Amino acid sequence: MPVLTRAPSRPCPISLQPFSSSSVFRKASSWGNDSGALKPSPVRREPDNATSAQSNTSPSSAPFLSSTLSASPAPSASSSLQIPSVSFASNQTSVTWSSGVTSRFHHLWLRDHCRCATCYHPKTKQRLLDTFAIPQDVTPSFVESTMEGLLVTWPGLGGPVSSGAPSQGADTTHEHGASDGSVPSTTTETASTGIEHQSLYPWSWLRANSYAPVLSSNMSSLDGAGDLQSDDLGMERRGKVLWGRGIASNPPTVQHQELASERGVAKWLSKLDAYGFCFIAGVPVTPEATQELIEKIAFIRPTHYGGFWDFTSNLAHGDTAYTSIALGAHTDTTYFTDPCGLQLFHLLEHSASEDGTPAKGGESLLVDGFLAAKVLRDVHPEAYRILSETRISTHSAGDEDTFIRPMHPRGYPILEHDDRTGELLLVRQNNDDRSTLKLREEEVMPFYDALRKWNEILTSTDGEYWQQLVPGTALSLLICWISAIANQRVLHGRSAFTGKRRMCGAYLAQDDVRSRTDVLLRRYPDVVHDGPRVPFAPSGGAQGGRFARGVWDDGL
Ligand SMILES: C[N+](C)(C)CCCC[C@H](N)C(=O)O
Ligand SMILES: O=C(O)CCC(=O)C(=O)O
């Protein structure tokens, strides 16, 4: 249990991160500090001339600091390493990073995000704390800047606390119990003991979740309203390899036999994550083997086309995919509120028809929607803005038993962004499936102009990657981008064909693919794909092939 210079009135049930405080204090003792403990100086509330606490550290702590404070900009070589300084006033706590940038966090937000074992179940990663029992004006007794993070001490507030309706003004933060992850029992703070509560927030987590301002290690600070003109749509940062027709020289591929191991599946997902598509060579030419293959990632997402599909040009399900006509670059299932995440195709057969019509055409087309979007933004920024803001709807209505449209009555934009960071999340493009445009009069012609410019890029020969699928080589493509954020990315299509052509495959849901990718790429961080690596730094401490998910992990 950490020994802090100011022993709280009770042991502080803080679930520490891998850098256990003993290691901190062990390192601290090497700084010539006789007690072996840091001496954070608590900061009490200072209305306007807020003071800040800062513990200077010696260079000998550099390795530890660099790993603990990796989220903070590396200090200049000449400056000594400094942990952020903190202060608080009115309803916010301020953290000033070594860069000089200050992040502000509402006290209510901080208290609500305490992840000690009494406020946050260490195993289930679920909130145990009753958010609505936190006083709206909750204010720390004091805040401290420690090696591991921001340490906030909250007062135990007045009034006996029952497990029922909160009494007026009392600190009715109902705490549930066990830090061992067992079934929580309700314990409460009572005014009579004046028990304080301490919360420790790791610096890296505070930086990653700073909202005033929004910070990002690779992107300029944004005003939080989402800046579509940000220099980086987040692709390099997310380790995405953008490609054009040149990818034909070395397309991402894995061998089917590699996928017998979980590490092999991690390699497959790593390539999918980087490129948005990946071939699998050596797949037995049967629907059964193909289904077994896709289920190595996740369970199949059934749709109105069925679960595992095995289709040909018989106009089944009333969709042109079930014909022999050409299909332009598109993403599937744009009409679902939650479009499918991964699509796998495996050509089982393409031969002459019974009437002797020869097998011709049926080539497959891939286009990197994210590269196309970058080109559109750079060359036609106004068109990019229009396609990012105009809602359009699509439908699947060819089967009399089905009429699928998205939840939002006007649908969704073709280019969808994270409105906080400006990152491009999702390319949702299927002009054949588009429903009636419902725009204001003055929007109609600008929209068509933007759409035309977008189509010119999508159909540019520089961006089109054509290849002829052959039985035994399956094609997996992310119509949903797998990374921190699920997106649609790769568009696909085909040329017209003649003859008997049989294709099989299935969809996977985006959340299931993203979950599997996140888990496996953390479990096998050494898995190499050809693109830039985006280190998965499991904050739970990677121990060999498995890692313990930490309560401060990204996304929680
Ligand atoms: C893949 N499979 C043949 C089963 C269905 C194809 C669905 C095509 C539809 N127009 C869409 O874009 O979603
Ligand atoms: O038949 C093909 O090669 C692809 C069909 C297609 O685009 C689809 O099913 O969405």
Question: What's this, in brief?
Answer:
The protein has ten helices and 25 strands.
Architecture overview:
By secondary structure, the chain is α+β, with helices and mostly antiparallel strands. Among the domains are: 83-155 and 195-220, 2-Layer Sandwich (NE0471 N-terminal domain-like); 245-523, Double-stranded beta-helix, CATH 3.60.130. 18% of the residues lie in helices and 20% in strands. It contains ten helices and 25 strands. It has helices spanning 21-29, 62-68, 107-112, 203-208, 262-275, 287-294, 369-379, 381-389, 441-458, 510-523; strands spanning 43-44, 85-89, 92-96, 102-106, 142-145, 149-154, 175-176, 186-187, 197-202, 253-255, 277-281, 309-311, 327-330, 340-351, 360-361, 364-368, 415-417, 424-427, 464-467, 473-478, 490-494, 497-498, 500-509, 542-543, 546-547. It has a six-stranded mixed β-sheet with strand order 10-11-20-14-23-12. A four-stranded antiparallel β-sheet has the order 1-5-6-9. A four-stranded antiparallel β-sheet has the order 13-21-16-19. Strand 17 (415-417) and strand 18 (424-427) form a beta hairpin. The radius of gyration is 28 Å and the shape is elongated. Residues 1-40, 46-80, 158-192, 218-231, 480-487 and 530-545 have low confidence and may be disordered. N-trimethyllysine binds at residues 305, 309, 311, 319, 321, 330, 332-333, 430, 433. GO terms for molecular function: iron ion binding; trimethyllysine dioxygenase activity. Belongs to the gamma-BBH/TMLD family.
